Structures are given as structure tokens and as C-alpha cells.
Amino acid sequence: MTRQAVAAGVSALALLAGAPAIAEIKIGATLAVTGPAAFLGDPEAKTLEMLVEELNANGGIDGEEVELVLYDDGGDPNKARTFATRLIEEDEVVAVIGGSTTGATMAMAPLFADYEIPFISLAGAVVIIDPVQEYVFKTPHTDRMACEKIFADITARGLTKVGMISGTGGFGASMREQCLDVAGAAGVEIVADETYGPNDSDMTPQLTNIAGTDGVEAVVNPGFGQGPAVVTRNYAQLGLEMPFYQSHGVASDEFIKLAGDAAEGVRLPATPLLIPDQLAEDDVQRQPVQDYIAAYEAAYGEKPSTFGGYAYDAFHLLTHAIREAGAEDPAAIRDAIEAIEGHAGVTGVYSFTPEDHMGLDLSAFRILEIKDGGWTPVEQ
Amino acid sequence: MSELLQFLISGVTVGAIYAAIALGFTLIYNASGVVNFAQGEFVVIGGMTAAALIAAGVPVILAAPIAVVAGTLVGILLYRLAIRPAGQAPLVTLIIITIGASIFLRGAMQAVFDKQIHRYDGFSGDAPLRVGGATILPQSLWIVGGSIAVFAFLAWFLNRTRAGRGIKATASNRMAAALVGINTGRAMNLSFALSAGIGALAGVLATPVTFTSYDVGVLMALKGFSATMLGGVGSPLGALAGGLLIGLIEALTAGYISSDYKDAAAFIVILLVLFLRPQGLFGARIVERV
């Protein structure tokens, strides 16, 4: 064996060993996989893991494998910040998806500007993108948009006087404030404003008060978890007949199951994920929605949730940007995300601009009505 | 007027649930002086077991008793595996053991059941009954009836039966009770089994109205414990009255003032009562003989 042959062999080996490591794109994520916000983080993490596997099975991004570095922050802002630092400094990821909760998102947000790494949050609050931070994007619509959508449907029915009954948990409290804030501009008047604790088991006193308020024409219930189902049952128990609106927080089959027959006629704003088969043939979201549901059901044997959908959109927006800009320069990836226009996701159709890092408008929400234990889109 | 009636109905329904939980606290306290912080978990075990069985197609009439038995068995295991091995440890240690047990049970329920919220239909359907302009769910009558039945049973059991008096004697002075021939171990075992069963029954009855999930036990225990303190620790009548009173205060505050203040109103009343009558409304005055 000549010297050259040995050298050639060694360099070939080096290439073999080195090639995958160099040609790997690392994407970071820190999510609330466990803890009180696990209902968000769990489907998000499952979605990301599923998508990475699927992407690599199809040859990755331009032939390069994608590696997902996923940490579980339990929804704790301190941990989220620590993990975000670790993702950037030690794991050397090119971009980060995550922050299941607004608290976790806001705790890590400043890091991304410092390190110039793009970040796509999966949390709801409007503060994440208003004011716009250069490196921070988000995929979920805001609760402010949910209020606007509900109020638009109420005024379309010729009604203006609204009674609100809101949960005092994070979700309900935030949405209540946004609804009160946009009510005037949306042309409705809030005539009753009641609240209930997240674990309360009987809201008939509050509903009795709303029903007794002069002129109230429709009722809106911002809240999350079991509260809205209890309110819906109490609403039926009291025999109230006014149009009744729930929020996107309970847009799942679980809600119909818990509220039972009482849910009939309830309307709420939701993503198209709930009505995959009722979307028009030419609806741009039809394909992504059906793809996501089919893939998720095949992987986990259960239906995906709205929250998993946020992760689905974040991942596709990010991989799209990496295809455009390459994986070397995170700042270029950021620019590519900001340049995305008309990207049809499961949550909505995203068009980012330097002023808008959420990229969704009100069309992302569909008003659905519960009929015969299922979802029916309301014609608008 | 119909408003007030609706508030009262709401208060009695919720209060009866608190009372049923408080009655569970009462029994273990009566036997051992221990405040069992795992009491809320028994409620959840009852509710979750019944929900799982009913979802699997078991009729309510079978699922409900099975769930109560399941809760009772967990109560016996708690005593055998955690409380009895601690032997003559001080009360505070035993109470801390029950806190540990509650955390353990919560974790175990996540694994055995799931993290979802569950409910099943009311025993007599979900069509509300109309009473003078207000409405009441048939399940509320089950809950109120269940709490009163448990109260009557406990009042009879603790005062009129040998086993019940043995439990009271054990609490009063365990060594003296043992000296006069009472099997104090059996009395303790019995009290854990019964109060776990009562907790599970509360869960089975309440779940159609309140829903249940693995983590609601802490809150249930807190409300039940408040009811126990208000009524007087160790008194079944106090547990019943304390539970109903807290439920009514909450409903009336939510109805007439604001639901934001409903917990505060309940706790202010509890504080006032404890200032004026530290032993609670119906509690026996505790006399320390030196």
C-alpha cells in the first residue's frame, strides 16, 4: 500500500465521519411539554418531532438532515431563558421555535436580538409582536382578533348589546381585557361583565345576573379548560336563549363532549383544523389541514389540537425560510421569514412584513357553530 | 325573588359537595387527630374511576359502587403503607406524610388515567327541574341527598356503634383506648377506609356537575378543609353546616357583589368565626389537662 493510498483512505474516512456532522441543520425548541401548560407544549412537541422525522425521511432540506434540539421548560420563564441560552451558545442552533406560554416567550425574547437568531413563538399574547422585535415572530392569532371576529359575527346578526362572563385564569383575563378594549370600535356595547374562577363548578349566579341585565342580546365567554363547559351547561340549565359565544380557547371536540347537548347552537372562532372535510375544494388551507391531520393521526393515533397547529406552521415557515436563505446565516433566515407572503398554514395564511411579525388577518378565524354534536362553518 | 332562589340553589349544590369532602376529613381526624391532606385525591379517584368505567360502557349503577370501593382500597393502602409504618411519629409528621401521599396519588392518577377533563351524565338525566322561577339539576338533589345520608350515617356510626366509639376513643387517647381493650390499629384502619370511601362517593356524585381531572383534588381538599374548620374539627354536624355555609356565601357573593370577591368573602367569614369561636361553630372546646 502506497503512502498516497493511505492518505486517500484517511481523508475518505474523515469525510465519511465528518460529512453528516457538517451537513446538519440544527433547529432548537423549548416548550412546556410538562407542567400546567402541557396541554400546549405536549401537542407542539409531538408535532415538531413528527415533522422533523418526516422531513429527514424525504431527504431533509436540500439534502441536509435537520436535527431538532428540544428542551422541556415546563412553562417556567426562568427555565425557558436558560434553555434558550443553551440552545444558542452550546447547541449552536440556527433558529428557535418555542415558548408555549407568553411568559416563557417574553423571558427569552431579548436573547434573540442579542445573538441575532430568528425565533418563532407559539404563544398567544399580542405583546410578543407589538411592538415588533426584529428577530421575534409568532404563529398563533391573538385573543384581540378572536374578540374582533366574535363581535363582527354578533353585529352581522344585527345585535349590539353583549354580556360577558370571563374566566379569571390567564387566558380568560387577557381575552376579557382585549374584548373590552375593542368593543367600542367593533360597534358593540358591553352591558354586563361577570367573572368566575378557573375551577368553579357552578356559574348560575353570574349567568342569572347577565340574564337579568336590561337589553342584553348575546353572551360571550372567554375562558379555558373546564370553566367554559360548566358555563355552557349552566346556560342551558337556566334556559337562556340568546346567541352564546365561546372563544378559540375551547375549540376542540373535547369541549363538545364535556358540554354535551348544552353546546348545541354555541358559536366560536376557530382555525380550519376543526372542519377539514368542510373546507371548500379551492380553499388554500384545505391541503395543509388535511395533510397535518392525516400525519398526526398516523403518528400518534389521536386528533391534533389547535396548539399543535401553531407548531406545524412555525416549522413550515422556518424550513421554507431556510430553503430560501441557506442554513449558514441566521440573520438571512430571519430576512427570509419576514419576506414570506401568502404561506397557507393550518392556522391561517401568513404574510409577514417588517411591521407585522404575526402575518395573520381576521380571515384566519372561521366562525363555527356546534350542530348535532359537530362543527358547522357559519356562512359569512 | 327567583334570582335569590337561583343563588341559594347554586350555593346549596356547591356547599353540599364541600360538606361531603369535609365529612371525610372529620372521620380521620376523629380517629387519629390527623388532618388528611390526601382527602381531595380520594374525591378525584372516585370521579375518575367512575368516569373511566362509564366511558368503557359499564352502567352507572355498577360503576358508582366500584369507584367507591376503589377509593376505599386506596385509603386502606395509604394507611397500611404510609401511616402505619410511621408508628408513633408525632402528628405533624403524619400530616406531612399525607401531603406526600397526595402528591404521589396525583402523579399516579396521571399515569393510570390521563390528564383530560372528564364527566358523565347525571344519574337522573340532565334536564333541569323548575322550582319557582329558578332551575335545579337533578344531580344537585343527588349530591345534597348524598351528603345528608353520609352525615346521618356518621352521626349514628360514631355515637351508636362499638366500632365508631372505638374510633373516638382512639383519637381521644390512643394508649388509654388500647388499655381498655380497643384495637386501635383496626380503628385507625377503619377510619381511613371509611373516609376514603366517603371522599370517593363525593367524587362520584359531584363529577356530573363539577367535572373532574387528575389535579382538582388540591382545591377540593382546600375547600373541604375550610368547611371543616368553620364547622368545627371532628364534628359531623359542623362539617355539614360548614360546607353548606361556605357554598352559600360564595354563591351569594358571586350573585350580589362580584365573583372576584367570592373566595375572599368565604375566608373572611371563616376568620371571623375562628376569632370568636376558635373551635368552630360546632366543635367541642378543646381542654388541655396538665
UniProtKB/TrEMBL annotation, chain A:
<dbReference type="InterPro" id="IPR051010">
    <property type="entry name" value="BCAA_transport"/>
</dbReference>
<dbReference type="InterPro" id="IPR028081">
    <property type="entry name" value="Leu-bd"/>
</dbReference>
<dbReference type="GO" id="GO:0006865">
    <property type="term" value="P:amino acid transport"/>
</dbReference>
<keyword id="KW-0732">Signal</keyword>
<keyword id="KW-0813">Transport</keyword>
<dbReference type="InterPro" id="IPR000709">
    <property type="entry name" value="Leu_Ile_Val-bd"/>
</dbReference>
<dbReference type="Pfam" id="PF13458">
    <property type="entry name" value="Peripla_BP_6"/>
</dbReference>
<dbReference type="InterPro" id="IPR028082">
    <property type="entry name" value="Peripla_BP_I"/>
</dbReference>
<feature type="domain" description="Leucine-binding protein">
    <location>
        <begin position="24"/>
        <end position="371"/>
    </location>
</feature>
<keyword id="KW-0029">Amino-acid transport</keyword>
<feature type="signal peptide">
    <location>
        <begin position="1"/>
        <end position="23"/>
    </location>
</feature>
<comment type="similarity">
    <text>Belongs to the leucine-binding protein family.</text>
</comment>
<protein>
    <submittedName>
        <fullName>Amino acid/amide ABC transporter substrate-binding protein, HAAT family</fullName>
    </submittedName>
</protein>
TrEMBL record, chain B:
<dbReference type="InterPro" id="IPR052157">
    <property type="entry name" value="BCAA_transport_permease"/>
</dbReference>
<feature type="transmembrane region" description="Helical">
    <location>
        <begin position="140"/>
        <end position="158"/>
    </location>
</feature>
<feature type="transmembrane region" description="Helical">
    <location>
        <begin position="234"/>
        <end position="257"/>
    </location>
</feature>
<keyword id="KW-0029">Amino-acid transport</keyword>
<dbReference type="GO" id="GO:0022857">
    <property type="term" value="F:transmembrane transporter activity"/>
</dbReference>
<keyword id="KW-1133">Transmembrane helix</keyword>
<dbReference type="Pfam" id="PF02653">
    <property type="entry name" value="BPD_transp_2"/>
</dbReference>
<comment type="similarity">
    <text>Belongs to the binding-protein-dependent transport system permease family. LivHM subfamily.</text>
</comment>
<keyword id="KW-1003">Cell membrane</keyword>
<keyword id="KW-0813">Transport</keyword>
<feature type="transmembrane region" description="Helical">
    <location>
        <begin position="192"/>
        <end position="214"/>
    </location>
</feature>
<feature type="transmembrane region" description="Helical">
    <location>
        <begin position="7"/>
        <end position="29"/>
    </location>
</feature>
<feature type="transmembrane region" description="Helical">
    <location>
        <begin position="49"/>
        <end position="79"/>
    </location>
</feature>
<dbReference type="GO" id="GO:0005886">
    <property type="term" value="C:plasma membrane"/>
</dbReference>
<dbReference type="GO" id="GO:0006865">
    <property type="term" value="P:amino acid transport"/>
</dbReference>
<feature type="transmembrane region" description="Helical">
    <location>
        <begin position="91"/>
        <end position="113"/>
    </location>
</feature>
<keyword id="KW-0812">Transmembrane</keyword>
<protein>
    <submittedName>
        <fullName>Amino acid/amide ABC transporter membrane protein 1, HAAT family</fullName>
    </submittedName>
</protein>
<feature type="transmembrane region" description="Helical">
    <location>
        <begin position="264"/>
        <end position="287"/>
    </location>
</feature>
<dbReference type="InterPro" id="IPR001851">
    <property type="entry name" value="ABC_transp_permease"/>
</dbReference>
<keyword id="KW-0472">Membrane</keyword>
